[in-house]
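Student: Hello, beginner here. Can you help me understand the protein record under this note? Any guidance would be welcome.
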Amino acid sequence: MLCLVVAGCSSSEPAKKAEVAKNETAPDVFNVNFDTSKGAVIVEVHRDWAPNGVDHFYTLVKTGFYDGNRFFRVVRNFVTQFGINGDPKTNDLWATAPIPDDHVRQSNVRGMLTYAATGAPNSRSTQLFFNLRNNSMLDDKGFAPIGRVTQGMEVVDSFYDSYGDMPPSGQGPDPAQIGIQGNQYLDAHFPRLDFVKKATIQ
């Protein structure tokens, strides 16, 4: 199962959290360009596939949430995961405001972009993963794809993967520590991770 682990939230910012978490209604279909450290990746996003997830993703991209994100979990022939902001305060605002689940309308085949989740109901927030293979076994677990890579899948395949999976499955980056320390933790201990330079809606 794909785990989503983030730092706890501060109870002193409830009003700001509510404001930040308000999502815009996304277009029916749109493209997002991920300008990454290895090149461009273009994702075609479909609102009818997962309306709650797509509206949230659209808002996150527009606010620049994914800019500077590291691809912190790259598991060969499985997934590439990202979506923890390098600034712990920014990450905390968004990661502690989960969104309602969507029905699974598309399969997690190679190239699909999907939210990570804890396995509990309504636990998606900011973390996403690219499917590196046919992961259709995730469909019955509630992982609803929001878009598909139309250009640059070879770029996704090239992201640095030698750190391995996240704990406890491997010795890779700990999402909880990323949430607490941000990119400072990753730069110090996992400097070879690839990253999103900027994500933009086309």
